[in-house]
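Troubleshooting log. The previous structure file for this entry was overwritten by mistake, so regenerating from the original sequence record. Sequence copied from the archived sheet and checked twice against the printout by T.R.
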Amino acid sequence: MKSFLQTIVEARELISDPAHWCQETYAENEKGEVIKWRSGKAVAFCAMGALYRACGQEKFIDGYFGVINEAFEGNVVTANDEGPHERVLAGFDRLIAFAKGTEA
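Regenerated output below.
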């Protein structure tokens, strides 16, 4: 299994291009239709969808929900759905900095 740091770096990369980022749903296909984050047809993700996709499971990421919310200045879902793409990437950057400080 990937470490938390590996997971969040990969998740950030998944949505680094705004064309692969979405709001108000975990994932979308190339037509912009809502689809499950696990689907092979998913091409765009919200912050949580990207975290789940990078990890491959929800339970692992859910164990870090408190620190994820802190990095996103309150709530990752709100930051994703109400903020611009840059705000979401900044949240990932704070999360990565935190994880680098806690993992050997």
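The first strand starts at residue 27 and ends at 28. Archived copy saved in two places this time.
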